[in-house]
Predict the 3D structure of the following.
Amino acid sequence: LYIMPRLTFQISFSLALLTFTKFSGDATVYTDAVSSSNGFSGFACGFLYAPAKARSLFAAINAPQYEGSNNCGRCAKVKCVDSRCKSQKEITVMLVDKCPECKLGDLDFSMPAWEEITGHSPDRLKIEWDFESCDELIDNAPPKLSIDPGANPWWVSVQISNHRFGIKSLRIKSSGADWKLTN
């Protein structure tokens, strides 16, 4: 019988500053809302936890701006600028997935987010958006640290969710070791 030793970690992280660059592109729709707190685990960003409001107001970011998952968990303030839009409402969505076929500036939305942004049936419509704080979507609770259930003495996956801004860096320290900056 092998008993796995207890893993002890210290974690620190810093938040990315917001950019205020407007992007424009096409909006499309690809899925419905997710029903559970871990509903995003099947998406490209692989989140282990999803804030309640973000489970319906989310989008997949285009491949060029996915940046190797660096923009996962960030939020975008989006407005439909297409003349066919029935809504001019700006809403905030959480970026939780990658849209491989989308071009720079494009976003692919959950159906509830699409309906709020466009007021239109599914189609391809023009949007403008920029990165935004996630204040509107996070739960009224501190940031949540999730450790992948597959963690073992040789491998660990850590996610920080329910925070206002994207994570710029993450450092981890195990017992008796120096701080390591993660990729």
In short: The two ends are 34 Å apart (CA to CA). Residues 1-7 have pLDDT under 50 and may be disordered.
